[in-house]
Amino acid sequence: MTKKRIVFSFIAVTLCFALWGFANDITNPMVKAFSKIFKMSVTDGALVQMAFYGGYFAMALPAALFIHKYSYKKGLILGLILFAVGSFGFLPAVASGNYYPFLIAYFVLTCGLSFLETSANPYILTLGDPKNAAIRINLAQSFNPIGSLFGMWVAMHFIQEKMCTLSTEERLSLNADQFEAIKLSDLQIISQPYIFLGLLGLVLLFILLIVLPEHSHTVDNDTPKKSNESIVNAFRRILSTRGYTSGFVAQFFYVGAQIMCWTFIIQYGTEVFTAYGLGELEAEIMSQKYNMVAMVLFCASRFLCTYLMKFFRPEALLTSLSVIAILLCVGVIVMVNEIGMACLVGISACMSLMFPTIYSLSLRGLDHEDAKLGAAGQIMAILGGSVLPAVQALIIDTTPVADESMVSISFLVPLLSFGVVTFYGVKSIHDIAREKEMHGIDIEKDYYE
C-alpha cells in the first residue's frame, strides 16, 4: 500500500479502538441504572455485565476462525455490522418495556466488539514497517481510554443527570401507572446514546469499506501454515505451552477485577457520599466523577508503566502493581469514606499495565499461527468481566437495599482476583529466570524487543 493509504487505514481502524472504549464505559453505570428502573436487586442489575462480557467470550474463537479463513478487513466489517444491530436493538427493547431484551441487545453488540478487538489489534501490526509495529499498536490503544472517558462523560451528563431524580425507595412507593411512566422515560434516556453508537458504527463501516484494501493482511505472510491440522490439536498444543493456561486464568481474574472496580464504584460512592448528606442521585453523579478521575489515572499510568519497562522487567512490574492493588483493596474495605474512595480510584493506576502484560506473557513461545488462536483465547478470558461482577453483586445483595454495609465487604472479590494476578506474576518471574538459566539466553532481549 502507499504511505497515504496506510495512514488512512491506520486512522480508520484506530477509531474502532475508541468506539469499543466508549461502549465499555458507558455501560458500567447501567448496572445501577437498570436496578433502579426495574426495581431489581444489584445481582439482577449485574446481568448487564454478564450479557456484555458474555458476548466477548462467545464470539472470540469464531472471530479468530473467521479472520483466519477470510481477512482482517472482513472481520472488522462483520464486527461493525453486529455492533450496529445490537445498538439499534435498544429501540425494540424500549418498546417492550422489559429488561431481558436489553440484555439480548448488549450480547449482540459485544459479539460485534469481539470481532473488532480480535481483528483490529493484529491488523494495526501489519500497517507499515514491522520495526515500528509496537509503536503503532501502543498509539492505537491509547485511543481506547480516550473513548472510555468520553463514554463516562456521556453516561454522567446524558443518562444519570437526565434520569428521574427519585431514589430507589421513593420509586418503590409509586403506584403502577406512575412507575410505568417514569420507567419508560428513563429507558428512552438510556437508549439514546446507544442509538448514537449504532449510527457511529455504520459511519465507521462506510469508511472502512472505502479506505481499507481488499486483499487479506496477515502478520505472518511468510510463515507456512501447519498442513490440515485440526483446531483441537492446535489448542492442545497451545494449552501445553508453559504459562499459557495460567495466563488465561490470570487474565480472567484481572478483567473481572477491572470491571468490578469500575462498576461498583457507583454503589460504593453512593454509600460514602450519602453518609455526607448528599441525595442518592447526587451521590451517583459524584461517584461517576471519581470514576472519570480513575480513568484519567489509568491513562497516565499506562504511559508511565511503558516508560518504566525500560528499566524493569514487565513481569516484575506486574507483580509489584498487583500487590499494591491488594493493599488498596484493603483500604477500600476498611475505610468506607473519602480515603476508601481514593484507594478505589488508585487501583486504576495499578491496573493499566495488567491486561497487555498478561496478554504478551501468556503468548510467549507460540509461533505466529498458534498465536492467532492463543490470542482468541485471551479475548475469551474477558468472560471474567461477566462472571465475577455477578459474584460481587450477590455479596452486596446479602443485605437489604436500605443497608448497604456489604458494599465495602464485597471488594474482597477484587482483592482475591488481584491475588491470582500476583501469583501469575511471581510464576512468570520464576519461569523466565529458569528458561534463562537453562538456555543461557536473554529472554527480555530475545522476546520483548
Specify the biggest β-sheet: none
Which stretches are low in confidence, meaning pLDDT under 50 for 5 or more residues running? 216-224, 443-449
Q: What is the total domain count?
A: 2
- By secondary-structure content and strand pairing, the structural class works out as mainly alpha
Q: What does the model show?
A:
There is one protein chain. The protein is mostly helical. The chain has two domains: 213 residues, Up-down Bundle (Growth Hormone, Chain: A); 218 residues, Growth Hormone, Chain: A. The protein is 79% helix and 0% strand. It contains 23 helices and no strands. The radius of gyration is 22 Å and the shape is globular. The protein starts with a helix and ends with a helix. The C terminus is likely disordered.
List the helices and strands and how they pair.
Elements: H1 3-27, H2 30-37, H3 42-45, H4 47-69, H5 72-88, H6 90-96, H7 100-126, H8 133-141, H9 143-160, H10 168-172, H11 176-211, H12 231-239, H13 244-263, H14 265-274, H15 280-308, H16 314-334, H17 338-351, H18 354-362, H19 368-380, H20 384-396, H21 406-409, H22 412-439, H23 443-448
Characteristic terms for this protein:
single chain, Growth Hormone, Chain: A, 449 residues, disordered C terminus, globular, 23 helices, 2 domains, mainly alpha
